[in-house]
Design goal:
Elements (H helix, E strand, L loop, with lengths): L7 H25 L4 H23 L6 H28 L3
Helix pairs in contact: 1-2, 1-3, 2-3
C-alpha cells in the first residue's frame, strides 16, 4: 500500500455520493410520508447516510484525511436533511 494522496475526484466523489443519498432520502420522505412520521423518517435517512459514509470512506483504505472526509459527508447530509425538516415544519405550520 502506498501513501500517495487521494485524487480530488475520489475524495469529493465519496462525499458527493452521500450528499446525493441525502437529497434522495429528503425527496422520498417529503413525497411519501405525512405528519409526524416525516421527522422520524428524516432521522432514519440521516442514520442511513452516516452508515453509508463509513462504508464508503473505509472502502478507500486511506487513513489520511479520514476525519475530514467523514465530517464533510455527515455535515453535508445533516444540512440537507435539516433544511428539509425546516421546510416541512414551515409548510405544516402555515397550512400546507
Amino acid at each position: 500500500m502506498t501513501d500517495a494522496p487521494m485524487t480530488a475526484g475520489r475524495t469529493w466523489g465519496g462525499i458527493a455520493s452521500v450528499w446525493a443519498l441525502a437529497v434522495v432520502g429528503a425527496v422520498l420522505v417529503s413525497v411519501s410520508s405525512t405528519g409526524d412520521l416525516r421527522f422520524s423518517l428524516l432521522a432514519l435517512a440521516l442514520a442511513a447516510c452516516c452508515l453509508v459514509t463509513f462504508v464508503i470512506q473505509l472502502a478507500t483504505t486511506r487513513k489520511v484525511g479520514f476525519i475530514d472526509r467523514v465530517g464533510a459527508s455527515i455535515v453535508g447530509a445533516l444540512v440537507i436533511l435539516g433544511g428539509t425538516g425546516l421546510y416541512l415544519s414551515i409548510v405544516a405550520l402555515f397550512g400546507g
